[in-house]
Amino acid sequence: MKLHLVLLNTLKAIGFVVLVNASVAYANDALPLADDPVVEQRLNTIAEELRCLVCQNESLAGSRADLALDLRRELRGLIKAGKSDAEIKDFMVSRYGDFVLYRPPVKPKTWLLWFAPLILLFIGLLVLVRTVKHSQNKQNRTDDDWDLETPASAPEKY
Description:
Blueprint: H1 2-26, H2 37-48, H3 66-80, H4 85-96, H5 111-149
């Protein structure tokens, strides 16, 4: 009976240790306070216009992904190095492509990105119109078939 209690207490202790280690593993370091508020403001302005490559629906400024943290650190270094906003964006585009921009330029490489939603909408409308017409034609044919089944040559009574 004592062995049973010893095993139970041991399992509890192991469970506690695993739980504590798991919570420590998921903890992130707190972000340091900005050394220069002007640099941080400029970083946030630029990062709002760039897409997080991991999240893809979030801006680089709002993402908490590890890659976003690294990219913000890289941007901060470029800002401190005296690069202009255009140079920083060009650097990001050269490294990650036009996809990194929330508003990519309209050029032959990005036509699909810009016009694919319109093309898909047009195709969807075409399919909808054809389906409705097909359904109406089918309904008209069944109505015509009903008319053919009634004897048209039957004498009318007045």
